[in-house]
## 1
Amino acid sequence: MNSYLSTALSLIIILFLSADVHAQEKQLGKIDFLNSGATEAQADFMEGVKFLHNFEYSDAARAFKRAREIDPDFAMAYYGEAKTHNHPIWMQQDREAAMQVLKELGGSVAERQSKAPTQREKDYLMTLEVLYGNTPQSEGKSKEERDDLYRQAMKELHEKYPNDHEVTAFYGLSILGTAHEGRDYKTYMQAAAQLFKVWNENQQHPGAAHYLIHSFDDPIHAPLGLPMARAYSKIAPAAAHAQHMTSHIFLALGMWDDVVDANIVARNVQTDRQKELNEQTSVCGHYPWWLQYGYLQEGATDKAKQVLNTCSERIAEDASSGEMWHFAVMRGHQIVDSENWSGADTWTAKYDTDTQGSLNYFYTSALAALMRDKESTARENLNKILKLPQSAERDIQADQIKSLLLIEEGNPQEGLKLLRETVAAELELPVDFGPPTIVKPSLELLGDVLLEMENYGEAVEAYERQLERTPKRRLSLLGKEKAMGMATR
C-alpha cells in the first residue's frame, strides 16, 4: 500500500511539474483566474487566457482547444475559445465561428448555462451570449450595438465581482471596444480608469499593461503609457504582439530607436513562432511596416529599403490581400519619406480597384510623377484613385493631387485654397494609431508648398501643427528647420 501511494504521489508530482513546465514554456505574464476546470487542463487554459490578453488569438484558440480536449466539460475553456473570435480594438468579429464553439458546449443559452458549475462562470458565459446576440436585448442587433450592450454587461459583471482582475481587465477592453469611430479620448480614459486598479495590484498582468497602452496611444497621453510600454515587453516576451505594442507609445513620442528595436524583436518572435508552426513568415505585415517607418524616421533609408525589398519579393509571388495593403503603404513611406521619387518605377505591382492598398499605391505613383514633372502620369493615377470607393481618405489624397496639379498649371491660389481645405478634412480624422496611412500628411504637404512659395512663416506653422499629430516626424522637422532658416535671411 505504501509502495502504491508512493508511486501515485510520484505521478502526481510529475504531472504537476509537467503542467508547470508547460505553463512556463511561454512567458506571457502572470494572472489568477479562478475556475472549476480539471487540474490537468489548467496550464493550457491559463496559457489561452494570457494569449488572449496579448491579442495572439490563434495561439489562444489552440490553447483553449487543448484544455477542453483534456476536460470536455470545462465550460470556461469554451468561453475562452469563443472569445478568440472577437477582436475589440480591431473592430473585428466572427460571430459564426464563435457560435460553433459555444454550440459544442450546448445548443442553447439555457443548456450552456447548465454546464457552468459556478455562478461566476455562468455570469462570464452570459456576457458572451450578449456579445454574440443570443439574448433578448442583443438578438438581431448590429455588431456595434452588441458591443455597447456587451460593455454594459461587463460593467455589471465588474460591479458584481469588483476584485476579480480578469473581469476588470476584460471590462476595460470592452470599453475600448466601443470606440467605433476611431480614437476617442473620453472612451479611452474611461477604460484606463478601470484598468489602473489591475495594473497597480499586478504589474505582471499582460492585459492591464496592454490595454493601458491602447488607452494612452496618442501624442497627448503617451507619456502616461511609458511605464507600461517599458514593462510590457518583459511581461510577455513570448508574445510578438506584446513586443510590438510597446512601440505604439514610442511612436507617439517620436522615440525612433525604441520603435525600431521593439519591432525587430516582434518580427523575430513572430518569425520563430511561424517557423515552429510551419507557417509562412510575415515579411509584408504589421511589424515590418512599423520597423521600416522607424528606420525612415531615423534617416536609415538603406535599412528601410531592405525591409521593403523583402516585402516586394513576396508580392511577386501569390500575395494575400493583407500583404498587398502593407506593400502599398510601405512603398508609399519609402518613396515619400526618403523623397526617392524614382522609386515609383522600382517598386511596382499590379493593383486595380479591388486590390487592398490600391489607394496608397496610386496616390504614391501620382505624387512621384508630379515631383518628376510627369503630369500625364499623375493624372492617370488620379483617375484611378477617383474610381475607388468613396472614403474620407480617398477624397483627401485625391484632393492633394488635384491641388498640386492646379499649382502646376499656374493656378497657385486656387491650388492653395484646395490644399487648405484638404488639411481641414484630414484634421477631422482621428490621429493614426501608427505610421500615417495617408503617407504624405496634408499639413506637411502644405508646409512644403508654402516653403516653395517663400511663405516661410505659414510654412513653419504648418510643420508645427503636423508635429503635434506626428511628433518628431523627420520631414516635418527638416521642413520646419529650413523654413525658419529662410525666414531669418
## 2
Amino acid sequence: MSNNMQGILWALLATALFAITAAMAKVAAAHYHVLQILFFRQCFVLASALPILGHTFPQGFKTKHPLLHVFRLLGAFLALSSGIWAVALLPLTTATTLAFAQVFFVALLAAVFLEEKLTPARITGVLFGFLGVLVVMRPGMDGLSSVYTLVPVAGALGAAIAVICVRHLSQTETTATLLVYQAVFVGLLAGIPLFWLWKTPDLQGFFLLTGMAIIATLGQWVGVKALRLGEASVVGTVEYMKLIYAALLGFVIFAETPDTFTLLGAALIMFSALYMMRQEQRQKALLKPT
C-alpha cells in the first residue's frame, strides 16, 4: 500500500474521530459550560504532550517570537471554544459546514501576512467558498437565518489566524515548543474562568467529558500520522468527509436533517476548496523539472 493510500486511511479515521468528538460535545454542552468542556480536552492534550515537555523543559518554552505565540494562542482558543459552542447552538452539519470557512480565511491572511500569491485559482476558490458560506447563513433583509451562524465563522477565523502564525513560527520554533505552548496556555485560558463556572460532573458526565477528550486527543495524533505518511494536498481532501460523518451522526443521534441551503452551501465549499487544491497541484507539476 502506497504512503498516500495509508495517509488517506489514517485521515479517514482522524476525521471520524473529530466528528464523534463534535457530537459528544453537543451532548455535553447541554449540561456543562463550553470552557469546562474545552478544559477537559486540553488536560488530555497536555497529558499526551508531557513526555515531550519532560525532554525539552525548559528549552521547550524558549521562543524568539512571543507576540506571534500570543496571537496564535488567542486564535486557537477562539477556534476551539467556538467549535464547541457552535455544535451546541446549531445542527451538527451546519456547524461543521461553516467551520470550513477556515480554508478561505487562510488563503486571504496568507496573502496579506505571508506574502503568498493570491493566484486566479485562489481568488476563484475564495469567492465560491464565501458564496457557499453565505448560502448556509442566508443573510437577507431580516438579517441572518440565525445569528448563531456567526459562531462557527468566528471560530474559522480564529483557526486561520492560528494556522498563519504556526506557518511563520515553524520556521524558527520546534514542534515541541508549538505543542507545549498550546497545551498549557489554552488550558489556562479555559481553566481560569472555571473558578466561577465549574459544575462538578456526575459519573455519567465524567465519562462523557473524559471520553470526548481522549477521542479528540487521539484524533490529533492520528491526523499528524496521516500527514506524515501522505502528501498534504492528498490528505487534505479527506477533511471534507467530516461533513458526511456529521450529517450521519446528526441524523442518527439528534434526528437532524440538513436543509437544502446547508447542502448547497456545503457543495459549493467543497467544490471551491478542491478546485484550489487541484489547480495548485497542476501548478506545482508544471514547475517541476523534467
